[in-house]
Design brief:
homodimer, 264 residues, alpha+beta, PSTPO5379-like, PSTPO5379-like fold, 2 domains, 7-stranded antiparallel beta sheet, 4-stranded antiparallel beta sheet, 7 helices, globular
Amino acid sequence: MNSLQHAREAASAARARYRQGFVAPTAGQAPGLTQCNMITLPREWAYDFLLFAQRNPQACPVLDVTEPGSHTTLLAEQADLRTDLPLYRVWRDGQLAEELSDVSHIWAQHTDLVSFLIGCSFTFETDLMHAGIDVRHISEGCNVPMYRSNRVCRPAGRLQGNMVVSMRPIAADRVAEAARITGRYPGVHGAPVHVGEPGLLGINDLANPDFGDAVTIRPGEIPVFWACGVTPQAVVMASRVPFAISHAPGHMFITDIPDSYYHV
Amino acid sequence: MNSLQHAREAASAARARYRQGFVAPTAGQAPGLTQCNMITLPREWAYDFLLFAQRNPQACPVLDVTEPGSHTTLLAEQADLRTDLPLYRVWRDGQLAEELSDVSHIWAQHTDLVSFLIGCSFTFETDLMHAGIDVRHISEGCNVPMYRSNRVCRPAGRLQGNMVVSMRPIAADRVAEAARITGRYPGVHGAPVHVGEPGLLGINDLANPDFGDAVTIRPGEIPVFWACGVTPQAVVMASRVPFAISHAPGHMFITDIPDSYYHV
C-alpha cells in the first residue's frame, strides 16, 4: 500500500469516527490530504454565493459544489457531508442557532441544499513546516487565531461582509519564503493578504482572536495574515442569510485529495 | 508615464478602434495586458455556467462576472462589452446565428444578460517568448490552432460538452519548461492538459484545426495542448443553449489588468 492509500485509509477512519459522534478539531488528521471549509445554503442562495466566491477567491477558493439536495462530493466519494465533519454550526437569520455533530435531521427539513467546499490553509502548513518554518498554533497544539478584518469583500447579490483572516507569526527573515511557499497554493487561500501592522487591518489586539486561539508571538516575529475560509460564516452573519449550515471553525471536512493537487 | 500607463493607453485606443467598427484579431495588441474570452448568457443560465466554470477551471477560468443587464466590468472600467470587442458571435438554439462587430441592438432585446470574462492563454505566451520558446502561431502571424477534443467536461445543470484545446508545438527539450512557465498562470488555463499523442485526445489531423489556423510542426517538436477558452462556445452548441453572445475566436476583450496579476 502506498502512502496516498495509507493517508486515504486514515481519512476514511477519521470520517467514520466523526460520523459516530466523536468531536475534535481536525488539524493533523490524515496528513497530506486536503481539508475543507463547508458552507451549505438553499439553492435559492447558491448563485449569489458562487458569485461571491468568484469575486473573493482568496477568502473563498471553491474546491467543489454539490448538486442541490446531494450530500456527496467528488472530493471524497464515500463521505456523507451531513455526518462526516466533527462539528457543524446551524445559522438562522444570520445568527448562530446551534452547534451539532450531526445535521442529518436539519438537512432533512430542506430539499435543495447546495454545499460549497472551500480550500483551507491547513494544506500549505505542511509545506511551511517542511521548510523549517514554525507554524505556531501547531507547535502550541491549539487552533489557528482568526480575526474579523476591516477589509470589505466585493459583494455579490445579497451577500456582503468583511474578510476573516488567519494569523501566523513568522520570523522576519522567513516572511518572504512563507509568502513564496503559500503563494503556490492559490486554491487554498494562496499568498498572505497582509504582512505586519495589524492595526491597518482593523485588528487592535492579537491576543484576542475572534475565532480560534491566541498564539505566542516571539521577539523578531512578524504577524502574517492570510484570507480565511471562515469568511463565509462572517458573510452569513453580516447578510442575515435566513438559513445556512457550516463547519465549526477548525472542525473541517477531510477529503481524499492530496495536498499536492493544489500546488501550482 | 510608466509602462503600465502606456499599455493601458494602447488598450483604450484599441478598444476605441473596435468600437468604431475595426475588425481584427487582438493578438499582439496592448502587450502586457490580459485579454479575455467572453460568453454572455441570460441570467437564467448564469448559475449553470458559473458552476460549469468552477467544475472545469482549466478550460473556464473566470476572471470577472458582470451584474445582470450590465455591460461593464472591473477589468476595464471604461469599456463597453457590447461594442469594444472587435468581433462577436450570436448563438441561437446552440447554432451560430451571425457574426457582428457591435451587438448593442441584440443586447437591447434582453434585460438580464450576464457576461463571463474568461482567461486567455495569450497571457502566458509573452512569458514563453521571453524564455526563448517560439510561439509558432505568433512567429507565423496567424491565429492559434484549436481543436475539439474527446475530453468530456464535468457537466453542470443543463450544460455539458467537450473541452476545446489549443496547440503549440514545443521543442522536446523545452516541453518541461513550457509546462512550468504556464503552470504558474492557473487563472489563464495554466499547465498543459496533454503532451504529445494527439490521437489520444481524439485529434486525428493537426493540419485541420476546428478553430484558428494550422501551424508548422518542425522535426523534434512535440504538440502540446492547453485547455482553451473557446470551450464555452462548444458547450453552448452541445447543450443547445437558446441564446448566447460570445467573442469570435481570436477576437478577444482587452482588459486593463497586467498579465503579471495572474502570475502565481
